[in-house]
Amino acid sequence: MSNRVEVEIKKADAELQIVFGEVLAPSLVDAQGDCMSAEEIRKTAYRFLQKGRQSAVDTDHDRTANGSHIVESFIARDGDPTFIAGSWVIGVRVPDPALWARIKKGELNGFSFEGIGLRASTTVQLDIPENVSGLSQEAAGHSHRFVVTFDEAGRFLGGETDEVEGHRHGILKGTVTEDAAGHFHRYSFAEHLLGVP
């Protein structure tokens, strides 16, 4: 069974052209309705590195290496200020200037991990509130408070930010706001759903 997991880019080092994000987060249901335990995530991360797949980075699942490579890989610890504890986090160096420009513009804003695995039926109970709020990442010198809404079945409905410097941003999908005043903001609500402070 082939599976894809999509996650947002949470952090970037512009000078080194490295982007960071969780590849897999424990007990967080992905777009295919699957989730993994922290122990399975750790095993997956270690197997990936043991196989030497650090340069197997493509764009939009085109299966053509784009010259980027994984330069950092770790399991987030309890109390990590940026990443969900137990998650597999990677740092990818993107040397191609055109690809880096797409990342800076927000056209490429996450990782999508493709792999083969076995599914096992498991019941996961996750209380999803009607609304989740938080603070976006800084862009254009400021951040916004955001609120996203979920229906009674836990499906993401969208949301918006508060008004800052005369503008606000809509949130229609994913983990990036809509463009307003010539910029956008990244945000994350997964930590709130998992009860991570």
Summarize the entry for a quick read.
With 197 residues, this protein is α+β, with helices and mostly antiparallel strands. It is built from 3 helices and 10 strands. It has helices at 38-50, 97-105, 190-194, and strands at residues 2-8, 11-13, 18-24, 69-75, 88-93, 110-116, 131-135, 145-150, 156-161, 170-171.
Strand arrangement, major sheet: 2-3-5-4
Rg value: 17 Å
Number of strands: 10
> Which structural class fits the helix and strand makeup?
alpha+beta
Instruction: Give the amount of beta strand, in percent.
Output: 25-35%
Low-confidence spans: none
Largest sheet: 4 strands, antiparallel
The general outline is: globular
Please write the string of helix (H) and strand (E) elements.
Answer: EEEHEEHEEEEEH
Q: How far is the first residue's CA from the last residue's CA? A: 34 Å
Individual helix count: 3
Number of spatially distinct domains: 2
Mean pLDDT: 83
Q: How much helical structure, as a percent, in the residues?
A: 10-25%
